[in-house]
UniProtKB/TrEMBL annotation:
Protein name listed in UniProt: MFS transporter
Domain Major facilitator superfamily (MFS) profile as annotated: residue spans: 1-452
Lineage: Bacteria, Bacillati, Actinomycetota, Actinomycetes, Streptosporangiales
Annotated SUPFAM superfamilies: MFS general substrate transporter
CDD domains reported in the protein's UniProt record: MFS_MMR_MDR_like
Gene3D superfamilies: MFS general substrate transporter like domains, Multidrug resistance protein D
PANTHER family: ACTINORHODIN TRANSPORTER-RELATED (PTHR42718:SF39), MAJOR FACILITATOR SUPERFAMILY MULTIDRUG TRANSPORTER MFSC (PTHR42718)
Species of provenance: Actinoallomurus oryzae
Keyword terms of this UniProt record: Membrane, Transmembrane, Transmembrane helix
Topology term for the membrane: Multi-pass membrane protein
A Pfam family this chain is assigned to: MFS_1
Protein's UniProt keywords contain Transmembrane: yes
Amino acid sequence: MWSLLLATFMGMLDLFIVNVAAPAVQGDLHASFGDIQFVIAGYTLAYAMGLVTSGRLGDAYGRRRVFVIGVVVFGAASVACAAAPGAGALVAARVVQGLGAALMLPQVLALIQVMFTGTERARAIGLYGAVLPVGAIAGQIAGGSLVRLDLFGLGWRMIFVVNVPLCVLAAIGALLTVTKVDGSGRSTFDVPAVGMLSLALLLLLYPLIVGPERGWSSTATIELVASAVLFAAFGLWERRVDARGAAALLPLRLFGERGFARGLPTALFFYSGNSGLVLILSYFLQKGVHLAPLSSGLVFVPMGIASAVAALAARRLVERYGHRITVSGTGFMLVGLLLTWAAIGAAHGGAQALALLPGLVVASFGQGLIAPALIGLVLAEVVPEDSGAASGGLLTATQVANALGVAVIGSAFTVLVGDHGYRTAFGTCLFVLGALALATFVFLMLLRPRPAGAVTGQAPTRT
């Protein structure tokens, strides 16, 4: 489990670590702002596009094998990132690094699903849920800290070097300890579906990721429409594959599972709100309150701790009090957002950040109560042979939600800042986040587990 969690930590770390170090990277490589955008977006796009495909690869060819290959690719790409002589080479290495993350991370949830049962599985998912915010916060802190420390004179390159020993530990640990790794042994692979889904995700995520910075255009609209057409074509193709009894990339039978079908829209509302909060809070602290990047990053530390503590406590609380504990997470989120809104303008400078903290910590605690339970509910009824595909689908929905939150809430925040200033923009967007929390509440109520098995994560077997 610790080998799997280490890989999860690395994947989350590298989603965020470049953001704070971006100015140093840009200056050292004499890169344009557009180049730096692609250094960040290249990883995210490759990661999101490869999740479902790599999840299915694990189902077919063995999850430990694909996990270890992903760790090796991730580590090698990290070395290439650290040694990059220019912006183009760094972007290419980041794309490969994102593909490595896509190979290893769906296997984590899939291996949890097949290696653990009952309360052990619930505990494993709780640990997984606790590592996610820790990795995200560590990325924001480590990016600024490593650049500032300039270890061995490597400067920003150290943010990639730190991955190498972690990859060695994760790969060796998996080889020594992961045992239930058999794949289905199917030699065929749904190549047309891979192409359609990858292109559809690219056309969806690319304008969402770069749109807030570059501005929306008719080209972005065309890309989004084309994405919708490709998703429809993908669904029709997978229906044909299913009808032939072949191995579909994302089996449509998954959407017949109550938890998976209702869990994906729940994840869209939940994670889009979370990513939107991180974005607007970062901008408000740095641009509105005028904190340094590292100082603003430190504000996220107690938020990450609160979320991790809640994720670890959620299993026992759900075992004792049931699904209402998960649903109560939305109540904590709403109260926290309200407290944060009430603290806007209560002080200035660093004192303003301190005034915001109580509300932010309460909201983060609520997020921690929901995240691991949501993962368990989505995957609870998925049979072991589909666990990789289901895990990839869930992680893809999470990435789409993150991109939507950044694009939609970020755009609204930018418009409001221009018209009313940072405080009003931040306060107004908090109400939008509150609406997303309410939507999460509604979908969590619809996702209420069945009386037997859903809370403990017991998956049925197919006959």
